[in-house]
Amino acid sequence: MNSAQIEIQLIVSLVAIACAIPGTFLVLRKMALISDAISHSILPGVVVGFFITSDLNSPLLILMAALSGVITVVLVEFIQKTKLVKEDTAIGLVFPTLFSIGVILISKYANDIHLDVDAVLVGDLTLVAFDRISINGLDLGPKSLWVIGTILVITVGLLLAFFKELKVSTFDPGLATALGFSPVVLHYGLMSVASITTVGAFDAVGAILVVALMIAPAAIAYLLTDDLKKMLLLSVFFGVISAVLGYWLSHWLNTSISGSITTVLGLVFLLVYLFAPKKGLISVLYRNRQQKIEVSLLTFLLHLNNHTEERERHINHLNEHINWQKVKSKSVVDLALRNNMITIEANIISLTEKGKSFTDKAIDYIITNDDSEIESMKEDFFLFRG
Amino acid sequence: MEQKKLAVTVDDLTVAYNYKPVLWDIDLAIPEGVMMAIVGPNGAGKSTLIKAILGIIDPIAGSVAIYGKPYKKQRKLVGYVPQKGSVDWDFPTTALDVVMMGTYGSLGWIKRPGKKEKKIALEALEKVGMLSFKDRQISQLSGGQQQRVFLARALAQDAAIYFMDEPFQGVDATTEIAIINILKELRKAGKTVIVVHHDLQTVPEYFDWVTFLNVKKIATGPVKEIFNDDNLTKTYGINYKVSVQQ
Q1: CATH class of this structure's domain A3-217
Q2: ipTM strictly over 0.85?
Q3: Residues on chain B touching A220 (C-beta within 8 angstroms)
Q4: Which residues of A132-164 are buried (b: 16+ CB within 10 A; e: fewer)?
């Protein structure tokens, strides 16, 4: 690896972390689309900032862009509040309008500067290593590294300071208001961070990748954990891993870095979506199937528990009587036998002691949803795993 | 009637959604230590009244005082149980963590909860009989258990006045009894409890004070004096004969 390669990987990793943090809260607030809107509508802010300063490196550009990001959110909410259009429609109305204002401004007044729309949308990571900061001839590294590094430090600082406030206002805005943590202030704080991160990241990675880095890692993490802190850490982890893997994929395929990173994010999401241990599709389907069999098992055991007469316990009767078209009765009987819950003598099925206590516990659990009784059953039966 | 301190006073409160008043000129004086039901038909503004008192909704007119001062200065005196359906129970967090949120108000901005807050939350969970569920992800709780977690969170607020928005909605009889016992304990401890309530049959049994609401205030006072057919009919607009069963 040469130093430019290391620098690029460092930049995308920092961008990934800076995006994953606000992204996690956007996903939990069901506002993923807003990041898409922000990433586009910051363009007029950048252009206006450039008109004011005539300097593409001015921090004012970032502030103006962040401002237009916040304006996007305000406009979306304003339109939505009139109840004349729904939220997704409002988003779809606002950001293309703002973005196109930026496009028109550029093509009309700024054609001769280095600010083209393609670069805004997909960015160009290969170039970021050449745009460097130096003081008195001392090379301090790429500008992007400093910009995104600063934004990241601020974001992490805000997260550590306001984690509790963000959590409660995301989970229960009503309670947050009652406790005195203004959800409005936190909402716009989060939107400002998302906007600033987007601006800081987009000239390195482009607007589309910013959206991917905000939403995909958080969506991946959401499938893997039930804990907000872990979700934040996991989304940072998956963001960074995908960024680095994507970088090497692009190197190998000799193609766009942003495109490769986004593709890797999509693939990682697909893998987790399919194979996540608890919430993954395959696990859910498997669990549903097992639970169906286990519910039938319980129905079957309960029936045995309720009836002492032989007629009711004959193997053929059970096949006919309990409605089991969907689950083969054989698999249920086998499962019960395997677990020593029943004995079969001359086609008459009887409950063993183990089977009886299992039935009692299970029914008790279903009524109370109280864990203490069934800890031992959790290992063997999906039905009792939370 | 003996002279008591007023826990909550509401003056000329009017709330409107899109210029349509949902609460019109409400005056209330709730004495300290009562257990009050707010009853009224759907759309009567019962939840809105609580939310307006707690500053969650801005009224277009009127004022609210908690022990004589604006709510914003008295937040720490007030506990709140929102409607269960108002939050996303798939949120990645545990029962204990939700109850801890009740302590955030006394912590204020930035300061993080520590051992003391955790202890308060665990005690609150124990009071509602949910201690063994403390590490459960909240989506893995039954509806009644979720309601108890909300109640525990309000207990963790350690308030003087509790506002509860339909705490009995969708809970089974066991949970309802458990909740009402906790509310009665709160009242015994001198707290004021204000509950949006739907089941008119249980009003005389559970509460000693009642407010009839239907956009306007119909009546407010002790259950024994004003919980009668006349007020029920005025509030619900049809002939009610609940009081016969008392």
Answers
A1: mainly alpha
A2: yes
A3: none
A4: eeeeeeeeebbbbbebbbbbbeebeebbeebeb
